[in-house]
Amino acid sequence: MLSRDSSARQSALTAVSHTPNKDQRIQELEAERQALFTAAMVEDEDGFFDASSRAAKRLQLEADCQASGKLLETSLGSGAALQEALRELDDTPPEVLEVQAEHLREEISELEESAKEASKRVGELRGEARRLETDERASRLRSEVKSLEEEMVDDGEQWPTLVIARFIVRRTQDRYERERRPKVVDEAEKFFGEITESRYRLISPPGEARLELESSDGSRKKMDELSMGTADQLYMSLRFGYITELARQGQVLPVMMDDALVNCDPERARGAARGIAKLAESHQVLLFTCHPETVALLREVAPEVRVCQL
Questions:
Q1: How many domains in the chain?
Q2: What is the mean pLDDT of each run of 10 residues along the chain (310 residues)?
Q3: Of all helices (H) and strands (E), which one includes residue 51?
Q4: Residue 43 is part of which domain span?
Q5: Rounded Cα–Cα distance for residues 275 and 297 (Å)
Q6: Do residues 73 and 95 both lie within one domain?
Q7: 35 and 69 share a domain?
Q8: Contact 233, 262 (CB under 8 A)
């Protein structure tokens, strides 16, 4: 009896599943699905889900951008002041940005640590003050607590500014690395080759915010592995590369240097002089020195140099 009832129900379900209304509904749903695929410009369900995921990520990024913009306006204001600050950061060399970012990270870390210590000390002092309310030290402890609370307020006021400054520096550095760093590195490599007589080649690994030097035998050195003299030559080349890239964008400015060769040994001084002479081919270079040997060296590598006695 139970088996016959089950068979009857199965037959009824089968009959319903093949009714014209059911088939029509399936066709309508299929048409709706295809319409969704067409609107999303995909061919199947996997593509539809991928497109949906990308759309969600885009909305999240847009929300993050709006929140960051409001945070910047709160700290720097809107309009000309904000735009001027961003332009100034855009024009800052990457090595300077890295130094600034490191200083900001250190300051933020110090402020956070100071706030923790101050909060801990305030708690200790409050506990001691309660125990010694009638003690002669109570007044001194209350004064110390008040002073620490004021320091916490000052630190709290500086913290958002430093966080925003770190965000701006990082964003500007990312933009610089993405849009302008390769050109600066290309120009810097030309100067570095001139200064070192092509003993090294400047390498900027793709997608990485760092530089390496490759010697003629193929070995590579990181920045922290360079000697002080080689590092000075590299930094000079980077500055010259940045100056050349600015000139390419229409910002040709005179270059002023003060005893730029004073810390170089004779060999490196000669290389640096060649780099300065190369820069002088496209820029007005004013180099001040009180060392006659520097004048003689520049006259040797660039006979056309003009010397003015002050």
A1: 3
A2: 45 49 81 80 80 83 74 66 69 75 82 85 80 66 80 76 74 61 79 83 70 82 84 88 88 89 85 90 92 92 90
A3: helix 45-76
A4: 23-78
A5: 12
A6: no
A7: yes
A8: no
